[in-house]
Amino acid sequence: MRLRSALLAATVLAAPVAVQAQPISGLYVGAGAGVNFKQDQNFTGLNANVGPLAPFTSNGNSLKLTYDTGWVGVASVGYGLGNGLRLEVEGNYRDNNVRTLHGTPFPTAAGGDTQTYGAMVNVLYDVDVASYTGVDWVMPYVGVGAGYAWTKLHAVKASGTTVPFFGRSDDTDGNFAYQAIVGAAIPIDAMPGLAFTAEYRFFGVIGDTSYKGAVDTGATAATFTRTFGSAKLGDQYNHSILAGVRYAFNAAPPPPPPAPIVAPAPAAARSYLVFFDWDRADLSDRARQIIAEAARNSTSVQYTRIEVNGYTDTSGSAEYNQRLSVRRAQNVAAELVKDGVPRQAIAIQGFGETHLLVPTGPNVREPQNRRVEIILH
Known about the structure:
Elements: H1 2-13, E1 25-38, E2 41-44, H2 54-58, E3 63-67, E4 70-81, E5 85-102, E6 108-126, H3 130-133, E7 139-160, E8 165-187, E9 194-205, E10 209-217, E11 225-233, E12 236-248, E13 270-275, H4 285-298, E14 306-310, H5 318-338, E15 346-350, E16 371-376
Parallel strand pairs: 14-15
Antiparallel strand pairs: 1-4, 1-12, 2-3, 2-11, 3-5, 4-5, 5-6, 6-7, 7-8, 8-9, 8-10, 9-12, 10-11, 13-16, 14-16
Helix pairs in contact: 4-5
């Protein structure tokens, strides 16, 4: 239950808003801390072949030290190859209080703590789950490590509560160490290169380690005899749950947000003026040239419609001028179609003697007002 609760706590600590996770390329540093569960450890008591402990080892009985839940801290410097592989050097520290000396046939009190510290070389691999699952906010990783670890018995002691003996050791010894690592990194959006990490580590120290100490034995406390010797601890196994941070120095910054799509500004309307003789709707050579130019330009610019608007001057009646302006617009539209403009793109209107280009009074023959305007929108 404690192991499951610690794993849940580490996961919660490593759950900020994240950006896309990517394999590390280049130098990085990391650190983490958490809880350490140390398995029971075989113990050959101090001078166990002497005094009240003699029957428990010489006859093949096993003594074990049991431990309370402790804590662990690690720090590392590494280098990512950019393809998922990482190499790193790590320092670690673990501390667990001794709970009991188990295996004695009489009540025994125990105390002190074991402090294990080591140096490891690790090889890790970042698993690109985004390629397989589409999940790109987390980067799982696995790894193995090897190195050397020292364990200090810090005031480790055991005493009989009904059989008088007292043993104590304050010594350090080391041996080959190894570990397996399973973890996940979640990059932090606010700082490129920084990531939260959550890990499980199995850490072992192979072989017996030996510690100098002393044991006092006797019929009563007043008659204790002190004997110096050594104690041995067997293989050491640890299960660690950690939460931490990691910083990669040359992480690429997140891509900038895409530029907003700006609708192109509508093209400015282009207009062409075709002029007519008085009371006429037929096209002159110059008028055909202007219409041909408008038709050519309509193929090189984007337009939504082409307006062909006819006008007259103020000479004549308004009804007559209205019909004349329409005929002029129709003749221009027909010439545009002849020059390749689709008929459905053309809107024809006649405005008669309204919208004068040159303001005049009634019944005035003004050449500038006898016109058709071609407008490309």
